[in-house]
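Dear colleague,

Thank you for sharing your sequence with our group. We've completed the structure prediction you requested, and as agreed, I am returning the results in plain text so they can be pasted directly into your records. Please verify that the sequence below matches your submission; if there's any discrepancy, let me know and we will rerun it promptly.
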Amino acid sequence: MKRSLCFLLLAASVAMPSAAGHADGEGSPIFGVTIPENYRQWEMIAPSQEDGSFNELRAILGNAISVKAYREGTLPFPDGAILVKLAWKRVPSPEFGGAFVPGHATTVQIMVKDSKRYAFTGGWGFGRFVDGQPVDRAQHETCFGCHQANVKEHDFVFTRLAP
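Please find the predicted structure tokens below.
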């Protein structure tokens, strides 16, 4: 199964146009996802924090389609939904002991719902960017496997709407 999924991912990456974003930005390997224009003005879906060594502050933003789906409890998410996870290094606040503030940005991660284009990965295309540039193919090959193993019942999306 793992070998056939990799083959499908490689085959699908050939001549795939970019999705959801900057016409001038380089798309992610495999999926062709680019950083969406004006995404920093989108609504926040939720903050996020993982236990582990990342030591990051994170926020997940959504376009209008994804925000509407979250509010209405729509699963699967409709085509056109886009989620963006922003991550920064967590650094101590210089003004207030015990508090933390965002340090330097680490990644921008994107999920784009297009059930036809990305049928081989549950309808989602993935993009991961550092300093505005997509990370290597190997890192993108792991995206769907993690989502499939952990949140298949929630349309492959980890994030829940913050109350």
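Summary note from our side: Residues 1-19 have pLDDT under 50 and may be disordered.

Kind regards,
the structure core
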